[in-house]
Structures are given as C-alpha cells and as structure tokens.
C-alpha cells in the first residue's frame, strides 16, 4: 500500500481519540524505552513523547511517506522505517504501543505472543485495533470488489475480518501477563462533508483496492463504492453523517 498522510489525517480528530484513550490507560511504569508500532504520521508518537519526555521513543513505520510526515511532526523521536511484520529489535522495551496497525498483519495467534516477547518484564503492551469490519463501510468494499469488471484484480483482497473477538486475545496474553485489561468502545463519529464515510475508508481499508487499479477503472470502482456507502450512511437533518465505529483495546503487563 502507498499511504497518503493527508488523506489519512482528514479525520485526524476522530482517529486521534481512541489513540489517546489507549495512551491514558497505560499505567505510569516509569518507562525508559518506548516503541510505537505503526507510528504513522507521528501525531500519536508526539503525544507519547510528551507524556514520557525523558524516555527514548522509537517510531516504527513501514510507509516511507508516513515516516517523512512523522519526522516533521515528532523530530525528537527516533524513526525506524521497517515493515512491522519483520520487526526484530535488538533489545526489549518498557512500553510497546500500537494504535490501529497490527490488524494489517496476519496470524495473530503467533503475532501477539511474539510482540509481547519484545516487552521487558514488568513492562506494558498497549494495542488498539479497529473491529468494524462487518459494518457496511467495510462490507460494501468487498461487495463492490466482487461486482464489477475489476473482480479478477481485487477479489483476493476480500477476506475474513482480520481482528478476532476480545476473548481470543485474552487467551493469548493472559499466560504471559501479570494482568490483562481488554475492552471495546464504539464511537459514534459525527462526520461532515460529502460522502465522508467513503473519504474515511479511502484513508485506510479502501486504499488496498484503489492501489491495484488504474485510471478510469480505479475511478469507476471508487464511484461504485461511493454510491453504495452513501446510501448506507445517509445524512441526518443537520447535514451530518453518523458513523459508528467499534474499536478493540488491550493493555497487558508482562510477567516479571
């Protein structure tokens, strides 16, 4: 995927809220080293550094475009341009934080214990992932992919939801942790503008499909999805679009 920081940050306030909610639930264990996995454009990494100003914070990000944006947003953070799936740090971290990133990686049964191994004993793992993949915003992307001349190019992207139920992650993390706190929040996001749910997904999940297509076919796919999603999320009497969005959170302290 080629990430567009400007498209992603169109809804920066809504995207930032769960990141801050997660950050504020991390106990103050006095961390000296912190890794932000999938640090994106750095707007959250900057807040991590502000909370723990004396800590050495590393932003790990696979998109060169996002790293460039992150270095501008958080210049006092060390930036590492590398694929999260191949993240092999030389030492453990006191806090490993990841906001809206790990759902892009497969095989969570192996991934989450592996990430926990990168947390120092007594340290904290804090993760937030969207769990909105059965909502119309995301289901309609798959329907559009399977209903058009582009099907053969994009149907392989139509897969099962990448995030499991909360109990799945509890069972993975509990044996490795002193305590595990897992919860879900559904945010009722009030969006403005023309077809804002399309614009929202265009900053993340829809990008995978649009990256594969070119020219008129790309525009036609976006337009076809846009018509579907606009009907699913009509404007209210005030001209606003209400977009419920569920997110899964977990904070776990590694056994000492």
From TrEMBL:
Keyword Methyltransferase among UniProt keywords: yes
GO BP term, example: methylation
Q: Which residues form the Methyltransferase domain?
A: 34-123
Q: Does the keyword Ribonucleoprotein apply?
A: no
Q: Which domain of life is it from?
A: Bacteria
Instruction: Supply the Pfam families for this chain.
Output: Methyltransf_25
Q: Where is the signal peptide?
A: none
Q: Which InterPro entries match?
A: Methyltransf_25, SAM-dependent_MTases_sf, Trans_acon_MeTrfase_C
GO MF term list: trans-aconitate 2-methyltransferase activity
Q: Which UniProt keywords apply?
A: Methyltransferase, Transferase
Q: Which PANTHER family match?
A: TRANS-ACONITATE 2-METHYLTRANSFERASE, TRANS-ACONITATE 2-METHYLTRANSFERASE-RELATED
- What protein name is recorded for this chain? Trans-aconitate 2-methyltransferase
